[in-house]
């Protein structure tokens, strides 16, 4: 069996359990040999056909790469090459999401990350997180796959694009009353977290986002002028 530039063979054999299986070997010039085992002859032939199609469409190399790299390797390269381009406030929050994906899928090959796999993890997240938080976890995973496609040629398809985001409720904006604000600050002072009171005071005074506050350094603060300069805001503009 052969396609354009492809040498494919199917060998009928038995596995350790005594069951009949079909081992496929596909060779293509200048590419690693591809192998796979199937319990049905029809599935073996289908895989050969899909591989031939991918070669004709120029997608063979990404498929081979997707079989060679794990999600953990994707996260490592993304953290090394892409994360430094992002705002410090974004890095602070996204590193936790990356580590969560590493724990859940790190050992799996990229070729095995399908929409059903992602849906299962999405539903797992939804048990203990708000819908908006779940969507942010999906967003970072999707961006990693997009980079792997466009810049590294590790994949030719983004499985996250076939997974529905959770519907986020539209919350009503409400400001704290003076009494509520006093109660909040008292609770913050009583907290075991020594930084909570300061962070909340800054949030109430500046209306800065959580990521902006947590990513702040002394370089952002001018004590003499009594101002805070946010360099990397969500809309990309500097803000006092």
Provide a concise account of the structure shown.
The protein has about 240 residues and is mainly α.
| Topology, number of strands | 5
Q: Which H/E pattern describes the elements?
A: EEEHHHHHHHHHEE
Q: What CATH architecture of the largest domain would you give? A: Orthogonal Bundle
Mean pLDDT equals: 82
Q: Report the radius of gyration as a whole number of Å.
A: 25 Å
The parts where pLDDT drops under 50 for at least 5 residues are none
| Number of structural domains | 3
Using the coordinates above, name the CATH class of the largest domain.
Mainly Alpha
The total of helices stands at: 9
Spatial sequence of strands, sheet with the most strands = 1-2-3
Strand coverage percent:
5-15%
Shape: elongated
Percent helix: 40-55%
Q: What class do helices, strands and sheet pairing give? A: mainly alpha
Distance between the first and last residues' Cα: 68 Å
Major beta-sheet overview: 3 strands, antiparallel
What is the name of the CATH topology of the largest domain? Answer: DNA polymerase, domain 1
Please give a structural write-up.
There is one protein chain. This protein is mostly helical and 240 residues long. The protein has three domains: 54 residues; 92 residues, DNA polymerase, domain 1 (Orthogonal Bundle); 51 residues, no CATH class. 47% of the residues lie in helices and 11% in strands. It has a three-stranded antiparallel beta sheet, covered by helices on one side. A hairpin with a 4-residue loop joins strand 4 and strand 5.
């Amino acid at each position: 069996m052969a396609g354009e530039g492809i040498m494919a063979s199917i060998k009928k054999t038995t596995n350790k359990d005594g069951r009949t299986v079909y081992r496929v070997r596909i060779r293509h010039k200048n590419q690693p040999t591809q192998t796979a085992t199937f319990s049905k002859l029809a599935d073996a032939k289908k895989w050969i056909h899909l591989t031939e199609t991918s070669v004709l469409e120029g997608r063979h190399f990404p498929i081979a790469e997707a079989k060679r790299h794990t999600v953990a390797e994707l996260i490592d390269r993304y953290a090394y090459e892409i994360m430094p381009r992002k705002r410090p406030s974004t890095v602070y929050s996204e590193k936790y999401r990356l580590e969560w994906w590493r724990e859940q899928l790190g050992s799996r090959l990229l070729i095995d990350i399908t929409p059903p796999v992602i849906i299962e993890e999405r539903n797992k997240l939804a048990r203990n997180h708000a819908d908006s938080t779940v969507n942010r976890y999906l967003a970072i995973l999707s961006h990693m796959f997009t980079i792997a496609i466009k810049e590294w040629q590790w994949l030719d398809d983004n499985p996250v694009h076939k997974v529905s985001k959770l519907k986020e409720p539209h919350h009503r904006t409400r400001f704290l009353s003076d009494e509520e604000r006093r109660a909040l600050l008292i609770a913050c002072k009583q907290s075991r977290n020594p930084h909570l009171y300061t962070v909340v005071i800054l949030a109430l005074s500046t209306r800065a986002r959580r990521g902006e506050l947590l990513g702040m350094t002394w370089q952002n603060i001018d004590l003499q002028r009594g101002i805070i300069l946010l360099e990397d805001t969500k809309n990309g503009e500097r803000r006092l």
